[in-house]
Every structure is written in structure tokens, then in C-alpha cells.
């Protein structure tokens, strides 16, 4: 059986080197690409993201045809998709960092600043924290309970609770993972989460959502 091709999207806003190395470490055949035609031909798509929602959204949309290629391959072709950190947040309807910026709109919701009620809770949310599955997502193939590494100041407030696969806690409940059909997003960094993160990526490579 031929090895599946994973398109790791390069839009100037991702921790590409670390994500690429982590995917390779679990046996993926990865192509780092800014070419929409490569995305259209890929078996699986990974969208990383580091920095602000606004900068990431603008960087992605600045590549002619990329959003259209992603939409076609994921929504029409059914390719499994993984968004990491801001790559997950870009699934939202819009982000509120540095003004209102439209997202992909694949999972309805908004990305807001984390505003804990306890002033002792530091922002950004940085370091290791629990990933707790929601009851309806306990059979999700990719996301499992454990501890992962987080680094973010904004969080995804999801409209439909059924799209929340896992939560974490940092002075308040924060979404750790979202899932809808063949679309998956994780707020944590699997490439920095040691064995737990590598296991997430390994399961993504064999995930066949129906």
C-alpha cells in the first residue's frame, strides 16, 4: 500500500520545523508546502500556527487559492485535517485579536482573550496541563486524555458544545480540542508534548473518520 502524503501548510506562521520533525518521527511522509495543488493531492492536511490570529489568517489568505484548495480537499474530498494551536483557532468564524478578523468558519465560534477571574492566573497559558475528554468524545480515535504542552493567550469559544472534544483548565475551562467530522483541531502543541503529542500525531495518521 502506498504511503499517504501529508501536506504541512507553510504560510509563514507555523512552527514548521518542529511539527515536520514530529510528523516524520511517527512515520509520516510529509511535504511542507505553500502550493494549493499539493494540498489538493494530499491524503491528509496539517495546518500549524504560531502568533496572532490576525497575522495567521492574513498569511493563509495571502496565498492565492490556498483556502479554496483546503476547503475542496477537506469538505469535498474528505481528507482528514489537523489544526495545531492558532491553526485550530483559524477554524473559528472569527478572531478578536487586534480587531475582528474572519476565520475559516469551519467550526462556528469566536477566539477571545483568556480573561480569568483570578488575577493570580498568569496569561499566556503556558506549560503542561491536563487534556480532559468531553463525554461525547470519549470514543474519538485521535484525542485521548493526558497531559500536553500549551502556549496561548487567546482561546476558542465554540458555539456548539458537541464540537468540543476536550477541555483543559487555566483559571477557567478552556477548549483543548475541537472535532467535527474529518476536521480536528488541538490547542496544545503535539510537537512539544513529548510522548503524548507524538501519540496524537501517530493516531492522526491512521484516522479514518466516517
Features:
single chain; 210 residues; alpha/beta; 9-stranded mixed β-sheet; 4-stranded mixed β-sheet; 25% helix; 31% strand
Question: Can you characterise this structure?
Answer:
There is one protein chain. The chain is an alpha/beta fold and 210 residues long. Helix content is 25%, strand content 31%. It contains six helices and 13 strands. Strands 2-1-3-4-13-12-11-8-9 form a nine-stranded mixed beta sheet. A four-stranded mixed beta sheet has the order 6-5-7-10, with helices on one face. Strand 5 and strand 6 (101-102) form a beta hairpin. The longest helix has 13 residues, at 194-206.
Largest sheet: 9 strands, mixed
Secondary structure category: alpha/beta
Strand content: 25-35%
Task: Kindly report how far apart the N and C termini lie.
Answer: 20 Å
Radius of gyration, CA atoms, in whole angstroms: 16 Å
Which term fits the overall shape?
Answer: globular
Write down the oligomeric state: single chain
- Total strand segments: 13
Question: What is the element string, with H for helices and E for strands?
Answer: EHEHEHHEHEEEEEEEEEH
Q: Return residue spans where pLDDT drops below 50 for at least 5 consecutive residues.
A: none
Share of residues in helices: 25-40%
Mean pLDDT: 95
Count up the helices.
6
Could you outline the blueprint of secondary structure elements for this entry?
Elements: E1 5-9, H1 16-25, E2 29-33, H2 36-41, E3 44-47, H3 53-61, H4 66-76, E4 81-84, H5 86-89, E5 94-95, E6 101-102, E7 109-113, E8 125-133, E9 146-152, E10 154-158, E11 164-169, E12 173-180, E13 183-186, H6 194-206
Parallel strand pairs: 1-2, 1-3, 3-4, 4-13, 5-7
Antiparallel strand pairs: 5-6, 7-10, 8-9, 8-11, 11-12, 12-13
Amino acid at each position: 500500500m502506498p504511503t499517504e502524503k501529508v501536506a504541512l501548510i507553510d504560510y509563514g506562521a507555523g512552527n514548521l520545523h518542529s511539527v515536520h520533525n514530529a510528523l516524520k518521527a511517527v512515520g509520516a511522509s510529509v511535504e511542507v508546502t505553500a502550493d494549493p495543488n499539493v494540498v489538493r493531492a494530499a491524503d491528509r492536511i496539517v495546518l500549524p500556527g504560531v502568533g496572532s490570529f490576525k497575522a495567521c489568517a492574513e498569511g493563509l489568505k495571502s496565498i492565492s487559492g490556498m483556502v479554496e484548495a483546503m476547503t475542496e480537499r477537506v469538505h469535498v474530498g474528505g481528507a482528514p485535517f489537523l489544526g495545531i494551536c492558532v491553526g485550530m483557532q483559524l477554524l473559528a468564524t472569527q478572531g478578536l485579536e487586534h480587531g475582528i478578523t474572519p476565520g475559516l468558519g469551519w467550526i462556528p465560534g469566536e477566539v477571545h482573550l483568556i480573561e480569568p477571574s483570578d488575577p493570580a492566573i498568569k496569561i499566556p497559558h503556558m506549560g503542561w496541563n491536563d487534556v480532559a475528554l468531553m463525554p461525547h468524545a470519549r470514543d474519538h480515535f485521535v484525542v485521548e486524555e493526558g497531559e500536553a504542552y500549551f502556549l496561548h493567550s487567546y482561546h476558542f469559544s465554540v458555539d456548539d458544545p458537541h464540537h468540543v472534544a476536550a477541555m483543559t483548565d487555566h483559571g477557567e475551562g478552556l477548549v483543548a480540542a475541537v472535532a467535527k467530522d474529518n476536521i480536528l483541531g488541538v490547542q496544545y502543541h503535539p510537537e512539544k508534548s513529548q510522548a503524548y503529542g507524538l501519540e496524537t500525531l501517530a493516531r492522526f495518521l491512521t484516522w479514518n473518520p466516517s
